[in-house]
Amino acid sequence: MISIKRKIWLCPGMVVLLALAHSGVQGQVKPTVPDVHLETTPAQHIRATYTFAVNAPNIAAQEWLLFAAMPPTLSSQREVRATMNHDAHLDAEKSPFGRPLLTARVPAQEAGDRQNLSVQMTLEATLYKRKLVKGAPTEAVPPLDAEERRFSLAKTPTEDFTAQAFLDWLDRTGLRRKAGETDLNFAARVFQTLKHGANYLYSGPFQTRQASKICDSLKTDCGGLSVVFVSALRAGRVPARTLCGRWARTAPAGDPLVAMHVKSEFYAEGVGWVPCDLSSAVQFDHDGTTLRYFGDDPGDHLVQHTDTDLRFDTVYFGEQAQAFVQRVAYWVRGLGSLKGSIERETWQVETLPLSATDKPAESARPAAGGRAEKPLPTPAGKGG
């Protein structure tokens, strides 16, 4: 048996030594107790107020159909609560992931409702700081259950890592997983390669973020960078997922993203869900040896949904999909068109005292992994 040690730089001045042990037989990694663990502590409890308004002067609406992502319980956020006006109720989106939604059908009963829609949501959660530190875990971290692992390795229309263009890119960049390479070391190598090869570019909400379409240029925003990172890990059989949400701070006036941000995380055997923020690394960490945003999350981000490509039963327009749903998704039944409509949103965050029940999360993880934890009632008319 050969023992190898490799250095991975997590932040300036701190080195974590990851022991790699393998037998050399077909490149299989022999299970070992990792010499790193995730330190998870409560960071802050927040309450966010989100507003979304539409003025559509060229339509006479009869009914508005609303869908909003319901923030899941994760190792990075707990005590999650969310409400939405218009008597919204809990449902599940229609993709195989079955992620929870708040949905409502809003009849245009008053004259002003035919051209105008106003939505308000209140979201609350305790956010957790997660940091990868030296030292073996005090308790064994259980492996992912079969269903969560399957979803965290799945292909989606956006994370299309089986596309030939993406596979060719993996070969050109040397990002195929090597024999004997651990989850942590492979993820760190992919992260470092992308950090130095990518350029941040936000060109608007409808820019292409499909992995196979952007991997060559690597000129994209936080969503696209996270998609490419997650896709590369899934191609190497490391469970990973995007974390789509907003910064846990008030969006300043004029912010075109209204605090929207996408991070990611991957599951390392024996360690748990390791947080990553590739976009921040691309923009702010230009040191060639550091991994400041790898395995180090200050608990400053509210996840609204995991992964991409949510699907909605819009009743009148069939099943529709959106890759990211940090905003309210809506459809309208009526006469006219949405051409010339104006949308406005705000995001205000206040910090509340941490409760006595907010304790270190250790290595625990929710079973649902961002999906609805139990079958949810289907409202009349299917899906809202």
Keywords:
5-stranded antiparallel β-sheet; 384 residues; mainly beta
Brief summary:
The chain has six helices and 19 strands. It has 384 residues and is mainly beta.
Describe this protein's structure.
The chain is 15% helix and 39% strand. With 384 residues, the chain is mainly beta. The strands form six sheets. Strands 3, 5, 8, 14 and 19 form a five-stranded antiparallel β-sheet that branches. A four-stranded antiparallel β-sheet has the order 6-7-4-18, with no helix packed on it. Strand 12 (260-268) and strand 13 (272-276) form a beta hairpin. Helix 3 runs antiparallel to helix 5 and helix 3 packs across helix 6. The longest helix is centred in the middle third of the chain and has 15 residues, at 183-197. The model is unreliable at 1-29, 362-368 and 373-384 (pLDDT under 50).
Outline the secondary-structure elements.
Layout: E1 2-11, E2 14-22, E3 36-55, E4 59-69, E5 77-84, E6 89-92, E7 100-107, E8 116-134, H1 146-152, H2 164-173, H3 183-197, E9 199-200, H4 211-214, E10 219-220, H5 222-235, E11 240-247, E12 260-268, E13 272-276, H6 278-284, E14 296-297, E15 301-306, E16 310-313, E17 319-322, E18 329-336, E19 342-352
Q: Which H/E pattern describes the elements? A: EEEEEEEEHHHEHEHEEEHEEEEEE
Indicate the percent of residues in helices.
10-25%
Cα gyration radius (Å): 22 Å
Number of helices: 6
Distance between the termini: 58 Å
Oligomer: single chain
* Strand coverage percent: 35-45%
The shape, in one word, is globular
Strand element count: 19
Q: If you average the pLDDT, what whole number results?
A: 87
Low-confidence stretches: 1-29, 362-368, 373-384
Structural class: mainly beta
The biggest sheet, with number of strands, parallel, antiparallel or mixed sense and barrel status, is: 5 strands, antiparallel
